[in-house]
Design a protein that fits this description.
The complex is a heterodimer of chains A (about 575) and B (about 625).
Chain A: H1 8-11, E1 23-27, E2 32-37, E3 43-50, E4 53-54, E5 57-58, E6 64-67, E7 70-75, E8 80-86, E9 126-130, H2 135-155, E10 161-165, H3 172-185, E11 191-194, E12 207-212, E13 239-243, H4 257-274, H5 276-281, E14 283-286, H6 298-308, E15 313-317, H7 320-330, H8 340-343, E16 348-352, H9 363-379, E17 407-412, E18 417-421, E19 502-505, E20 517-521, H10 529-534, E21 537-547, E22 552-557, E23 567-571
Helix pairs in contact in A: 2-3, 4-6
Chain B: H1 3-18, H2 25-37, H3 42-55, H4 61-74, H5 79-85, H6 87-97, H7 100-113, H8 129-155, H9 157-165, H10 167-170, H11 174-182, H12 189-203, H13 205-209, H14 215-235, H15 240-258, H16 263-274, H17 282-285, H18 297-315, H19 317-330, H20 343-351, H21 361-372, H22 378-381, H23 394-401, H24 406-415, H25 432-435, E1 444-445, E2 452-453, H26 457-480, H27 493-498, H28 508-519, E3 534-536, H29 541-545, E4 557-560, E5 565-569, E6 571-574, E7 577-580, H30 581-589
Antiparallel strand pairs in B: 1-2, 3-5, 4-5, 6-7
Helix pairs in contact in B: 1-3, 2-4, 3-4, 4-7, 6-8, 6-23, 8-9, 8-11, 8-20, 12-18, 12-20, 14-15, 14-16, 14-19, 18-20, 18-21, 19-21
The chains are: A alpha+beta (about 575), B mainly alpha (about 625).
């Protein structure tokens, strides 16, 4: 099993680095400072004069912001002076090892090796000032949306629903952040939907989320933090999370992606209907870059999103071809919202310039981002953030970073109901023959279970006692036999037969489950695969170890206490292996 | 000079100018270089500059004028030519709207315009003398008037008003003469003096041109004005300008009814009425002031013509009615006297060739009288610290020099209209004015996180709550650092749909509950949602071993961080006996309901609702490894 960028560790070299003295960067109005910070190193930025914003979120003056593992830009509308200095290097054990709970968990960065510092100001890998930015356009989009929101408020209509599409590294998420930040600045509450499984929003990669933003986006930490037991210097955001255990939404022709998307849209619509502030402000949907290439299947998925979320505005970034096809398909067409016919609501397609600051984030960097996201889900933010805690009463500012203490525990194979994706690309010895899987139509139609093999179910679940092994039975009723798992699925052809996207994984669990994530859903363990597929999730377990002999797995749970008895989905291929989260 | 290219250059230049908000040497020299490199588009650039100076907010006029200064000094022709054409309007427009400090800077700049470019071989002044002279004489007049008025005001309020109404009068006053003595230093004395002297002359001819005054119409007009003023007075009883105006109108009415006035006086009165002037008491008694200086007939002839034009314009019955209506609607508190208005431009015309401005007077007067430049708005559009805002005489000055519509309009568009079309073309247009809605509109900043608040009372309140939030959070973080924290489970769909985002600017009580419900989501806090009941675990051993009388289960002691003591969760003391709170409420509230508690267990699917809805019979409280009274399922 190989993931791109898995060999990141080998590339990094331990370098002697003496921190450079703080550098001052002066920005003229309308320019931005673009910088890249490697994983494992930190750069501190302080706004000395003027105004500055990072993806729309304004920086406070004289506060130190610490960045790590990021490629970002600080823009100024009015001109500003920044002070850049090198921060601490995050070494392996800084986060978690010291504060591990009684279970003895500890962490390290074995996968990362020594952090590499760049030679830019403050140890940035790259940093420069750019004068050409598309910020005027981006701001105008915000003002245009604001116009629509005012109209929505006046007329009682729904606010604008924005879809951002474009290829990878075109700045889609940055635009989403800018629009979100500006909207919250105007005291609105945009509902931000991330349907990009390659990058999480307020969660780990592999999740599709929806979150209403009322408070400002965390400058240092991507989108911010989901709720924790303790306080957070930047208000936490409350995401609704669905798990999509694959990197590619187009996989299986979207057979797994689309139902999850529909479910997410349903919840979002429900929230819109009840939450007045959110309704007026509308939705901002950030999409995966893979949809931006106009590949077969991707237009269908885009169409699915446009329909499900009743999109009113499509922003196309960085692809003429996509723009033209969007223009053709959607511009000035009525939206899919229920009231569209009455209100004559029409879709507008806007082409946005791609920022010159967009850089390709290579596989290694993305893997770093992914690992950092998973790490921070369990262990919190390892970076001492002085900016957010300047008013802190405690003398020791080093304690003000949020360190979370996950709980390690052992779980019995039989107590778990783990589902796995039946993908086409499975080639390991652990892969299962798709022809042996239960048949499940993408819409959640037929669920066959042992004991009821001959009787097609209603669409809902069959009660299966926890602990028993429901054997998936496809049309030829062959019980699953681990010994018989010869790989026959090297081609995607079986998927064309509406193969089930999820199947239950019977014990004993394969050892490859180690170092990967289990998504704990809100569905009961007895739920049908389609229910499990559509269920939102409670969180993640990190499988540290699989003990086949004892029939137990050792997991890291975000919090102590019994792991809720829920169906879990194995994120085997995505978000994939994270080595060394638990020592 | 193709039109398109010129347009483009102009558009670019305009955009660059819009970025110029402060006196930034770099930007100004940059703009000068651009102008230098585009002399073939000098006309377009000059026009852009003029427009920009006219429309830009007062605080940004000085840098823009410095650009003009820099261009004419460093580039010279053809800019001197193009910019010189309208320099009088451009300069005076700016001058009237800026504060006194900026005015001083403008004065200094103007001074340099009368001299050759420093370091240049060319001995000619920066601008032709006729241009600078025109501006200067106008400035001197305005200054004189202001000073005179100030002094007069300090002496006697009523007399001041009367003098305003009778401009010829003030040429008499000693202050006037004093001021006049300063003028020779500016090299303008002869022109100025003759100009001053010409006033009486101009007034002498005007009566001859006047038509008969319809007394009845005049009375009607006054009555309607009084009615309007009364209405205003009831709305704004404390506004001195309204009081003053009402009184003035009543006085005027009295005068008209009591006294026989000459046609000339009546005409003056009507002029006053047409402009809703302050109490014109003295015109009736001091209608013909003494002439202080020797008239210069040659000069007098020129002003007479435009003056009569403007009067005719004003005396047009349609205009009068329109003015009354417009001004009544606009609630113009202290409009300037109409007849004083045309004097200064005519004065200018006598001294310098920039008479172009004179024919504008009727139009400008009409604009002003229609409430576009009411006295009340004067302080805001023209901060003139050295001059009292209610000072009526400065208003005519403003009227003359300002196309008054533009400045206020430019400001209001930048603030209010958020009307941006969602299409690819529209979003390319830079809208710097709208950026202020993200920044300057909210000037009150949180020092910790940079959040902005409105500088209003409401904004202050919000900020105070926001700072409270920071304070509380930091306290809690200091506390939390001592114990382990962890990530909460995500909520399920239902809870998410029902949830509402909590801000960091809500009142403390709200923040209390919201903070706990979000941040304390793992249930480590004992005060969630419907307050969980607990009691201190009794020290007495027998009591400690007494089970709940209802379910016969023993209580379990747990250590509470908050109370710093052993407690019994989900327990309530009723009388002398301790019950499980949930048992007790089952029995008491639900009456004869099933004692084993058939509470819906569906809710347990959200073990850690952030909404604080978690029931006591939920799953384990993860923070505490406490088994809280599990329901038999």
């Amino acid at each position: 099993m190989s993931l791109p960028g898995l060999d990141l560790a080998q590339t990094s070299v331990e370098t002697e680095f003496t921190p450079a003295p703080p550098t001052q960067v002066s920005l003229a109005r309308g320019s931005e400072w673009r910088f890249e910070v490697a994983h494992g190193t930190t750069v501190r930025v302080k706004l000395l004069a003027g105004t500055a914003e990072l993806f729309g979120t304004e920086l406070a003056a004289s506060q130190t912001y610490t960045f790590s593992g990021t490629k970002a830009a600080i823009y100024t509308w009015h001109g500003c002076t920044l002070e850049i200095s090198a921060g601490d290097t995050i070494d392996g054990l800084v986060n978690g090892g010291a504060t591990a709970t009684a279970t003895g968990t500890s962490t390290g960065f074995p996968g990362l090796g020594g952090p590499t510092r760049g030679y830019g100001a403050g140890g940035c890998q790259s940093e420069y000032v750019a004068e050409e930015t598309p910020m005027v356009e981006y701001a105008n989009v915000h003002f245009a949306l604001e116009t629509l929101r005012q109209e929505a408020k006046a007329t009682g209509k729904d606010g604008p629903r924005v879809l951002i599409v474009g290829p990878e590294n075109a700045g889609k998420t940055s635009v989403a952040k800018i629009l979100t930040a500006y909207a919250t600045k105007m005291e609105r509450q945009p509902l931000v939907v991330n349907v990009d499984p390659t990058e999480g929003m307020l969660s780990v990669p592999g999740t599709l989320t929806a979150t209403a933003f009322r408070t400002m986006i965390d400058v240092e930490e991507g989108w911010g933090n989901s709720p924790m037991s303790g306080p957070s210097p930047v208000p936490v955001k409350l995401p609704l999370v669905y798990f999509y255990p694959s990197q590619n939404p187009l996989e299986n022709e979207g057979a797994l992606y689309r139902p999850v998307l529909s479910r997410l849209a349903l919840s979002v619509t429900g929230r819109m209907a009840e939450d007045e502030d959110v309704r007026e402000t509308g939705i901002i949907v950030d999409t995966p870059g893979v949809l931006g290439h106009g590949r077969p299947g991707s237009l269908e998925v885009i169409n699915h999103i446009v329909t499900e979320f009743s999109i009113t505005t499509i922003l196309v970034l960085g692809s003429e071809r996509l723009y033209s096809s969007m223009l053709k398909s959607y511009d000035n067409k009525p939206t899919s919202s229920a009231s569209a016919a009455a209100s004559d609501e029409r879709i507008s397609v806007i082409k946005l310039p791609k920022s010159g600051g967009c850089v390709d984030r290579d596989a290694a960097f993305m893997k770093g981002v992914r690992e950092a996201a998973i790490r921070s889900y369990f262990f919190g933010n390892p970076i001492p953030s002085t900016a957010s805690t300047a008013l802190s009463l405690s003398s020791a500012s080093s304690t003000t970073n949020i360190t979370l203490s996950p709980h390690a525990q052992q779980l019995d194979f039989n107590s778990m109901a783990v589902y796995n994706v039946a993908g086409a690309e499975d080639e390991d010895e652990d892969d299962y023959d798709p022809s042996q899987l239960e048949s499940l139509l993408p819409g959640g139609g037929i669920n066959d279970y042992p004991g009821t093999q001959s009787q097609p179910e209603e669409s809902t679940s069959t009660p299966v006692l926890p602990g028993t092994t429901p054997t998936p039975v496809p049309a030829p009723t062959t019980p699953y036999d681990p010994a018989a798992t010869t790989t026959t699925s090297t081609t995607p052809s079986p998927n064309e037969n509406n193969e089930p996207p999820l199947k239950k994984l019977p014990p004993p669990f394969p050892t490859t489950m180690a170092n990967s994530l289990l998504a704990v859903t809100h569905a009961p363990p007895t739920a049908s695969p389609s229910e499990v597929r559509d269920a939102s999730i409670m969180g993640f377990l990190y499988v540290a170890d699989v003990d086949v002999e004892k029939g137990k797995i050792r997991v890291l749970a975000p919090m102590g206490g019994r792991v809720p008895p829920k169906a879990a989905v194995w994120g085997r291929r995505w978000p994939g292996e994270v080595v060394g989260l638990v020592g | 000079m193709s039109g398109l290219a010129s347009d483009e250059v102009a558009e670019d230049y305009k955009n660059s100018l819009e970025d110029l908000t402060t006196n930034d040497r770099f930007q100004i020299s940059n703009l000068t270089v651009i102008a230098k490199e585009n002399t073939e588009h000098a006309m377009a650039i000059s026009r852009v500059l003029e427009n920009h100076i006219r429309t830009t907010p007062p605080t940004q006029k000085l840098p823009a004028l410095y650009v003009v200064d820099s261009i004419v000094k460093n580039v010279g022709t053809p800019y001197t030519l193009f910019l010189g054409r309208n320099m009088y309007q451009t300069f005076m427009n700016a001058y009237t709207l800026v504060d006194s400090q900026t005015r001083r800077k403008l004065d200094e700049m103007l001074k340099t315009w009368k001299e050759p470019v420093p370091g240049s071989l060319d001995t000619r002044p920066v601008f032709p003398p006729d241009i600078t002279r025109g501006i200067e004489s106008a400035l001197i007049k305005a200054r004189t008037a202001a000073l005179q008025q100030q002094q007069a005001r300090s002496h006697q309020e009523i007399r001041t008003r009367s003098r305003v109404a009778t401009p010829p009068n003030w040429t008499n006053s000693p202050t006037m003469l004093q001021n006049a003595r300063h003028y020779p230093s500016n090299g303008q004395a002869p022109g100025y003096q003759s100009m001053e002297n010409s006033y009486p002359l101009r007034f002498t001819p005007t009566p001859q041109q006047s038509q008969d005054v319809d007394l009845a119409a005049l009375n009607r007009d006054i009555e309607s004005l009084i009615a309007a003023a009364r209405g205003e007075f009831t709305n704004n009883p404390l506004d001195p300008s309204v009081q003053q105006r009402l009184k003035a109108l009543l006085d005027l009415q009295g005068i008209l009814q009591r006294q026989e006035l000459t046609q000339e006086q009546l005409r003056l009165v009507r002029d006053q009425v047409s402009a809703l002037g302050p109490k014109p008491v003295l015109p009736t008694t001091q209608a013909v002031p003494p002439i202080p200086a020797v008239p210069t007939p040659a000069m007098a002839a020129a002003p007479a013509q435009p003056l009569s034009q403007s009067f005719q314009q004003l005396l047009n019955p349609g205009t009068l009615a329109g003015l009354i209506k417009a001004t009544a609607a606009r609630q113009q508190p202290t409009p300037p006297p109409a007849n004083s208005m045309p004097q200064m431009p005519t004065g200018n015309s006598t001294t310098q060739p920039a008479a172009a401005s004179t024919p504008e007077n009727p139009l400008v007067a009409a604009l002003r009288a229609r409430g576009l430049l009411p006295g009340s708005s004067a302080p805001s559009t023209a901060p003139t610290p050295s001059i009292p805002p209610a000072f009526p005489f400065i208003v005519p000055g403003q009227v003359r020099f300002t196309p008054p519509v533009q400045a206020p309009q430019a400001m209001s568009t930048s603030e209010n209209s958020m009307d941006v079309q969602m299409n690819t073309a529209s979003i390319k247009i830079p809208r710097h004015g709208l950026i202020t809605s993200l920044y300057e509109a909210k000037s009150n900043r949180c020092g910790t996180c940079g959040r902005r608040f409105f500088a209003t009372e409401e904004g202050k309140e919000k900020k105070a709550r926001h700072l409270d939030w920071h304070f509380k959070t930091n306290q809690r973080m200091a506390d939390a650092a001592k114990r382990a924290q962890n990530r909460s489970w995500y909520v399920d769909e239902r809870d998410w749909i029902k949830s509402r985002e909590v801000g960091d600017d809500q009142s403390l009580a709200d923040a209390e509950t919201s903070g706990d419900s979000v941040a304390g989501a793992d249930g480590s806090s004992a005060k969630k949602g419907p307050p969980k009941q607990w009691i201190h675990a009794p020290n007495d051993a027998t009591l400690r071993n007494t089970p709940c009388p209802i379910c016969q289960e023993k209580f379990e002691s747990t250590w509470s961080e908050e109370v710093q003591d052993w407690i019994w969760q989900d327990a309530a003391k009723v009388g002398n006996r301790v019950f499980h709170a949930s048992c007790y409420s089952e029995v008491t509230k639900d009456g004869p309901g099933p004692a084993d508690g058939n509470t819906p267990i569906g809710r347990t699917s959200t073990p850690d609702s952030v909404l604080g809805k978690r029931k006591a019979e939920g799953t384990d409280s993860p923070g505490h490894h406490v088994r809280v009274k599990m329901e038999p399922v």
